[in-house]
Amino acid sequence: MENNNKKSSAFYSYILNPDIKFDTQEDGEKIYLLLRSHPFTQLRWVLTSILFFILFFVFNFFPQSFFNLGQILIINLFFIVFILSYIWFNILNWYFNVGIITNKRVIDIDFYAVLYKEITNAQLGRIEDTTVKSGGYIESFFDYGSIFVQTAGTEANVEFINVPHPSDAVQIINKLLSKKHGF
């Protein structure tokens, strides 16, 4: 589980042994893996943003005889703020929705609408099963899928949706589980 390549970026989706800290990190808790959604899964909002910019420029290309200059300026400012806000919120959503695998637990941090966050964690000793779901040509080609961590009892299950290299991540979880259980 050692990271041979110490070069990493905050914008990677699969980071082995990241040098980060998080809110609920306990003393002696080592982070082995940080996961974000695969960049390919972000293509929808990127293309939508490009379409918004194209529509914005098309709107400004044709002379607007029924608007005066002040009204056109206000409409342009509104569209620019809307487009940039859309891009910013999608970047924040991608960046802060993470999965963390440590030597003690598996954590899923989800932010909704910037103001609300949900943190689900499963202690390694409570994990019953890990499942990888990846199907279709695109998921196979870009090597991404979803990981489902099932826990014992009534604890919430942990889900990492559309993460890169899901089989490798599950191997890391299984190695940590076997160390924890002494296998």
From TrEMBL:
The keyword Transmembrane helix applies. This is DUF304 domain-containing protein. The chain crosses the membrane at residues 43-62, 74-96. Keywords: Membrane, Transmembrane, Transmembrane helix.
